[in-house]
Amino acid sequence: MTASVVAAPAHSLEELLARSGQVAVEVSGAGQTAWNGQVVETVGEVLGLAHWDGTLYLDSECILDPLRQMYSHAGEEQSLPVLVQYRESLATLLHEHAHFLGPAGATQEAARGAFTRPGSRQLEEGVAEAWAQDNLNEYLTRLGVDKVAPGIADARGGGYYAAFVPAVRILAADLEARGNLRPGEVLRALNQQTAEGQFPLLTTLVYNSTRLPDLEPSGTSTRDHLETILRQGFAHLDTYELAPAALAAAQSRSTTTALLHHLTTEIHKAESHHTLELPPPTPGPLNPTHPAQPLTFTPPAPPLSHHRSAPSPLQSALSGIAPPALTTTPPPTHPAPTTRPTATPTHLHR
Questions:
Q1: Is the pLDDT of residue 14 over 80?
Q2: What is the DSSP secondary-structure string of 108-177?
Q3: What does the DSSP 8-state code read for residue 336?
Q4: Does the global pTM surpass 0.85?
Q5: Cα 241 to chain centroid, rounded
Q6: 20 to 30 Å CA-CA from 247: which of 75, 76, 84, 163?
């Protein structure tokens, strides 16, 4: 473990926000951030939003006002509920900055296009939230927040995206075990990518954890089939996004267990095709020289008691909603921008 780089504490909310993007890059190890340095204060149901034009939107009442209070009482002891409120505000800030991270040269245009593909939103939100949860203390230390709000490192909130985070954690842990990688290495690598690179990286990690790189020639369609399975699994998690957190998390875990089982079965079929003397294979998805049949992932059925309500426009992925209502005049944006969705199962949105 490397030691944290401790800078002088930010002395105001304005200074904190000004430094927040670069510190997110430093903590993540990403090549760049797409943040344009602008923060727009909003009112409404959306806690935070990383806009495709690079602007960061943060809610006044739930995010910025608690942080103003934190700096107005800098260095003072606070109750645990107050510290949790501060921490949740800062977790939202880091989560939204995670959406702006990417490798050097990545573009928002390419990320935006990839974000519309099946499973991309669920994977990116799960990665951003899991990574923000795991690295929040490091982020706060580098910003000096632990000096401004003593005890904040030990306060814990509930987090968001219960339908997505368990899936990301289970899959990352499985890949780390298969590849003899350090804990957290897969999550860190995924968080350094935009939506354009996350599924290709995830597919490569799955493929390289098998014997297939040594068994089959390059140019086969095996990677594409594995990516299809992964996308189907993550897209299905949307079913549970608006469920209560405990139910969403349980369904996320069972869905990911089924996903891993399906991946393992298909990988074993592909490996056997190259290692065993078999009769001519039945045409199927992992027999690239034969006509492919539709590749399907069968998730576990949700409990009968679960009824998903229809999402509101603010809860719909890529619904084309306008940015949140503003308390200040926003900077100019590109025509008809698409906003990044921020739905959670509670009345708070991020």
A1: yes
A2: HHHHHHHHTSTTHHHHHHHHHHHHHHHHHHHHHHHHTHHHHSTTGGG-----S-TTTHHHHHHHHHHHHH
A3: S
A4: no
A5: 14
A6: 84
